[in-house]
Amino acid sequence: MERTHLPLKLHLPASVTIGGCMSKEAIEQKEVIVGKLKDSGCRITKQRLILLDVILEGECGSCKEIYYRASKIDHSIGTATVYRMINTLEAIGAIDRKNMYRVQVS
């Protein structure tokens, strides 16, 4: 089975995202979070962008739900990748784990 790789894009048009349509607000939040990740020394990988899209598309109640949605887009995303990303997002203040993984951009 041949995998198709999605191109790495940091600045997506308002109507385009990896998993569907995102609001302008979600795209702005994504750009702020990507900036915070870069400032903290993280590489911006395709997997991280997919996970951000999944989290920003809707409210996920658990890492398992994030994993399930993200793995449909990219089969190489594992549960460890999801947990590491959630921990990183929590460390930079982008999400509140106690609040159903809602994004908090200040």
Automatic annotation (TrEMBL):
Annotated GO MF terms: DNA-binding transcription factor activity
Pfam families in UniProt: FUR (PF01475)
**Gene3D superfamilies recorded:** Winged helix-like DNA-binding domain superfamily/Winged helix DNA-binding domain
Xref: SUPFAM superfamilies: Winged helix' DNA-binding domain
Q: Which domain of life is it from?
A: Bacteria
Can you name this protein? Answer: Fe2+/Zn2+ uptake regulation protein
